[in-house]
Predict the structure.
Amino acid sequence: MSPPMTPARTRNAAATRTAILEAARKRFAHEGYDQTGVREIASDAGVDAALISRYFGGKEELFGEVLSCAPNIAEFLDGDRDSFGVRVAQMLAVEPMREEKFELFLIMLRSASSPKAAEAIRRHSHDAFYQPLETWLGGDDAAVRARLLSCVMMGATMNRVIYEDYLLDSQQRQELCEALARTLDNYVSGPV
Amino acid sequence: MSPPMTPARTRNAAATRTAILEAARKRFAHEGYDQTGVREIASDAGVDAALISRYFGGKEELFGEVLSCAPNIAEFLDGDRDSFGVRVAQMLAVEPMREEKFELFLIMLRSASSPKAAEAIRRHSHDAFYQPLETWLGGDDAAVRARLLSCVMMGATMNRVIYEDYLLDSQQRQELCEALARTLDNYVSGPV
DNA sequence: GGGCCATGTCATCAGTTGGTGACTTCTAGG
DNA sequence: CCTAGAAGTCACCAACTGATGACATGGCCC
């Protein structure tokens, strides 16, 4: 938001780049790749749309850049192993979707249908999600267990994207959270 | 495919309507709402693009019509209750994605990011997926268990949409299938 | 202070999209 | 056979998209 030590905001390439990146991240997460226009991103960032092409080469490259900067799975892998399930389930089922932790999932799910975004998503999610997760899990069947975890996490996010929250009340959401946590922990600890 | 008792194919409104619907269903499932143009649908169906607006009112209404006609969850609910998990897991993890059973999921996941399609998806999936599933499950926590099943089913589909199959070999896919089946059956039978 | 390059602004392009209305053509009913 | 209306064809529009190149301007170094 606030550039480190630059005068104000005009004529500052680094700040402009950051502003574009920030605006794009939010737009891509909330609307998806196709539904987001470069003019909207530029407007949010308070810059001219032409600068997007100038700084990033184009919308597609900007999307790739956003993926690289988005917060990834690492946060959940750093914490206590036994609480992995509840921490992730909390994010998936009860925490508001506006949370930044959600953004990578939202970007992926909302943009996966666009061919231009799909390739970047595949590449990035493998490097920033699957690979770390597999390593963290360890064992022979790490790949399968990573996939299982991914299924539950993506599915839960997808459900919230589609239905928001208006099909479950807070009591049910709590039950959902606990069940998700058990399933996740089961995939983490047990043999599949 | 073959109209019941009409001459050939030209000048047959019912057959034309069906052809458009069929072509649209496949396009929406494979490309998603946004990526599919009315010209492509019309071309696949072998008709003029203007007929889509004439017959259905527009692309949006056509999409709603497609959702209504797409095969839904009922097939899996009819079969043996004990084999629900394996049957669904088979579809999710091992059967080729070209299968018609997949189409409703694909349409939903690939089109959910489009605002125009989203509303139709919400309405239809509630009526044709959640409602039947909840009734079939029964019990106090049917809503939560339906959501859990939905998470796993959508997540598994989403993973295949994003990564196709090239991250897992057939052996791993089989393990994945068995684990998914256990999880699904757990949600069906047990208390969450 | 002056030149120069980085930075930002603007008008505009070419392509694509969904949609519409006038036109043609075929077929059914009298 | 001949007309009326359904079915299909065609040209075209208006809106929007991402992108580009010419132009203006500000700030930094000499």
